[in-house]
Amino acid sequence: MKIYTRTGDEGKTSVIGGRVSKNDSRVEAYGTIDELNCFVGQAASVLARETTADWDDLLEHLTLIQHELFDCGSDLSYAVADPRKMKVMPEMTERLEGWIDLYEAQTPPITKFILPGGSEPSSLLHVCRTVCRRAERRVVTLSEEQACPDEVRKYLNRLSDFFFTVARAANARLGLLDVEYERGADVFRRRS
User: Fold this and answer.
1) What is the pLDDT of residues 127-161, one digit of tens each?
2) Concatenated DSSP letters for 93-125?
3) What is the mean pLDDT of the chain?
4) Where is the Cobalamin adenosyltransferase-like domain (predicted)?
5) Based on the structure, what is the number of domains in the chain?
6) Residue 40 near residue 66 (C-beta atoms within 8 A)
């Protein structure tokens, strides 16, 4: 099988149920999710070679997230969503919430905004967070213009919170403190 088909040479691409412009909001949304998936893979690759902490749990979670990001893209690729064929379910978002709580317990209290960074794993997980937020914005745009499965938007919203939390947990596991934004006021309170 050849990888090139030439069917997109005129600026159109296929979605399930038709063909659209390559700059269609639907294509932009699932394309940004694909970009996010690449960054998640990069973060996982860096964690896999990191020897100073045990990353097995996070690597397992990131691998599952990569599969679920494909599910998100699949759900968005329908010109008209068929609820019977949607793969992103509320349980996936709920599971992310459990993981967020688990990793948040590994981090010191936070009161101010923090600067992304500290360690390479943390920096890459912050990149995942920001690309995830962009993907979420693209899905919101899509949902304002066309039919769009709500569960994908909810999943991405929670996923960006997950990346924020694991970026902080990565620094904590490596014995590094997050760098607080020094001109910021106290804005966070630990939930009980």
Assistant:
1) 999 999 999 999 999 999 988 899 999 999 999 99
2) HHHHHHHHHHHHTTS----S-EES-SSHHHHHH
3) 89
4) 3-169
5) 1
6) yes
Which amino acid is residue 133, in one-letter code? Answer: R
Residue listed under structure tokens 């596991």: 173
7 lies in a domain?
Answer: no
Nearest CA to 93 out of 192, 140, 27, 161 is that of 161
pTM: 0.90
Helix (H, G, I), strand (E, B) or coil at 49: helix
Residue 126 lies in a domain: yes
Q: What is the DSSP string of 129-161?
A: HHHHHHHHHHHHHHHHHS---HHHHHHHHHHHH
Name the burial class of residue 118, with classes exposed (0-12), middle (13-18) and buried (19+) by CB atoms within 10 angstroms of its CB.
buried
Domain of 167, in residue numbers? 22-180
170 in a domain, yes or no? Answer: yes
Q: Taking a C-beta distance cutoff of 8 angstroms, is the pair 186, 111 a contact? A: yes
**What CATH number is associated with residue 41?**
1.20.1200.10
Task: Determine, yes or no, domain membership for 72.
Answer: yes
